[in-house]
Design brief:
The chain is 0% helix and 42% strand. It has a seven-stranded mixed sheet with strand order 7-10-11-14-13-12-8, with no helix packed on it. The protein has a five-stranded antiparallel sheet with strand order 2-3-6-5-4, with no helix packed on it. The chain has one domain. The protein has no helices and 14 strands.
């Protein structure tokens, strides 16, 4: 199931971000220093974090790297570059309706690239953070997330 939350690509440069996996507590985080997260939408154990003005500022996930599929990935070429902006609805607490998943994790250890796959077909790849490509379906919903610079330590 896709995220169920439409995302648009803005004409402003994507914020600088860093992707980290913490093996000890099995958390994956993508963070940037642009603005604090105020809004969130989840699919399975993956949460997309947006600023108060709806710009994607991070991604968090609880995931066990020992369960990730390992394979050599062919990195897609983005057709668009710009900050991602949520076009979905949030409740009074800043939470959007969640999707149950599944989310599959595919890791290219040599390249340090982690792909998160949700159900659906990619229509367009967009670089939305300096280390993140989103694969959007024909309705603008994320169905793939490509993270660069992910290394598993420990």
């Amino acid at each position: 199931m896709p995220l169920g939350h439409k995302v648009g690509v803005m004409s402003i440069p994507p914020p600088h971000a860093v992707a980290r996996y913490h093996a000890g507590d099995k958390t994956l985080e993508v963070s940037c220093d642009v603005a604090p997260a105020a809004l969130r939408v989840s699919v399975g154990t993956v949460t997309f974090l947006f600023s108060a003005d709806r710009v994607l500022v991070g991604i968090d996930a609880y995931t066990n790297s020992e369960r990730w599929a390992r394979q050599t990935l062919v990195y897609p070429t983005p057709a668009a570059t710009g900050a991602a902006k949520s076009e979905g609805m949030f409740d009074d607490h800043g939470i959007a309706p969640s999707s149950q998943g599944p989310v599959d994790f595919v890791y290219d250890e040599q390249a340090g690239v982690l792909k998160l796959e949700m159900e659906g077909s990619v229509d367009l790849f967009a670089r939305v953070l300096s280390c993140v490509l989103l694969g959007l379906d024909h309705e603008g919903q994320p169905v793939e997330v490509w993270l660069e610079g992910v290394h598993v330590d420990g």
